[in-house]
Write a structure and sequence with these properties.
alpha/beta, 12 strands, six-stranded parallel β-sheet, binds beta-D-glucopyranose, four-stranded parallel β-sheet, about 15% strand, about 375 residues, about 40% helix, elongated, single chain, 13 helices
Length: about 375
């Protein structure tokens, strides 16, 4: 089995790790950067995983618009969460001689032959949001601080449970517990899922250790908590099973750690169908989230979902475009993390963006006043 976990390396990455794996094939017909070429002579291949999550649609639109504004041609493909489809799409981009590839993978370890082919053709590769693993031919990585996403999710959960105060310090009037919680993780083939989980579990651990928090199902390994392909229905079914198996004697469930908004909404459906809620005030458990999808922002405004984590995909797209431009000029992109993202073969230099916790008390400021969503969209719960 592949070990897709990330290792936090103590040592500073060597300068060699920053060098580009692919050094640019400039022959006509072959791909890769031509440092003398105008943007208009260059096509970038953009491989996206799925359109079922709102964020990937936003990411794709932002990247395409941003690159086209700079004069590049863009070949962007979505793969409907199907690995062979994504492999074929990337093969085709390589065959058509793109200048560089931006890849948000489905399974980070499934693209090795594509990455090898890209390197052989001199085409540099930027991993977009999800790390590409088990291969050396990954030049750069743009993402958010994924470990902090998990820390924020756990802090939001404990804030909702009254264990932490508004400063996220232990609350003076905290309930003694034990409080029952259940834990959900993302897809095991997505390296991010491991970092979200580690950040969350590291933060919850003291409270699990001293018995303030209890997981009645006992399902506390990421393998047990995982949600294959991040599918909403899978999370909803697992929540239903947990409720019938471990809460059929009227046991109270206080909170659920959910790693992404569609999963949060599946979990909330299962909780509401079991007669809990419909709002937190009415007794719905505290449910976390991620991505600040419009439907979840509306649920937060309505006091149903407790929190989400906002990751501004506009900034990520900008960062990816900057990295691509540097690579196309033959330069090393600016990195702010050269230690964390060991992909199984090498440390991939990365640029990490910050994340923000969104709650009922700050969603207007973060999501509406900033212009990300209009009040009408929040009212309607859709874009
Ligand atoms: C992304 C999350 C997203 C999840 C499911 C992760 O790799 O970082 O933002 O919710 O995939 O699409």
């Amino acid at each position: 089995m592949h070990n897709r976990r990330i290792f936090m390396l103590g040592a500073t990455a060597t300068a060699a790790a920053l060098g580009l794996a692919a050094c640019g094939g400039e022959g006509a017909g072959s791909g890769g950067p031509d440092t003398d070429a105008e943007p208009s002579e260059q096509t970038l291949g953009v491989a996206m995983p799925t359109e079922t999550y709102e964020r990937w649609v936003a990411d794709g639109n932002n990247i395409k618009e941003g690159l086209e504004e700079k004069g590049f041609t863009v070949d962007m493909q979505y793969a409907q969460d199907d690995i062979p489809t994504q492999q074929q799409q990337i093969d085709q981009m390589i065959n058509s001689g793109v200048s560089a590839l931006l890849i948000a993978s489905i399974d980070g370890a499934s693209l090795s032959s594509q990455l090898d082919a890209a390197a052989a053709a001199g085409i540099p590769v930027i991993a977009y949001d999800r790390l590409l693993t088990d291969n050396e031919n990954v030049d750069f990585y743009v993402t958010f601080d994924n470990y902090k996403v998990g820390v924020n999710q756990a802090n939001a959960l404990m804030y909702g449970l009254g264990l932490l105060d508004q400063e996220f310090e232990p609350a003076s009037d905290a309930p003694e517990g034990p409080l029952n919680v259940e834990l959900f993780a993302g897809s095991l083939d997505d390296n991010n899922a491991h970092l979200f989980w580690e950040g969350a579990i590291d933060t919850l651990q003291p409270y699990l250790d001293d018995g303030t928090l209890v997981v009645p199902s006992g399902q506390m390994d990421i393998e047990q908590a995982a949600t294959q392909r991040w599918e909403q229905e899978t999370a909803q079914k697992r929540m239903e099973n947990l409720l019938t198996t471990h809460y059929n004697g009227g046991e109270e469930l206080s909170g659920v750690l959910a790693p992404a908004d569609p999963l949060s909404r599946g979990i909330i459906n299962a909780l509401q169908n079991s007669g809990r809620g419909p709002t937190i005030e009415d007794g719905l458990p505290i449910v976390t989230g991620q991505d600040a999808e419009i439907a979840s922002i509306t649920l937060i405004a309505d006091g149903v979902q407790h929190s989400t984590i906002f990751k501004d995909t506009r900034d990520l797209a900008d960062q990816a475009i900057l990295a691509a431009e540097s690579i196309l000029k033959g330069e090393d992109p600016e990195a702010n993390d050269t230690e964390t993202y060991e992909n199984g073969v090498k440390v991939v230099p990365a640029y990490l963006l910050e994340v923000q916790m969104v709650l009922q008390e700050n969603y207007e400021e973060i999501m509406v006043d900033s212009g990300y969503y209009t009040p009408e969209q929040v009212e309607a719960g859709k874009l």
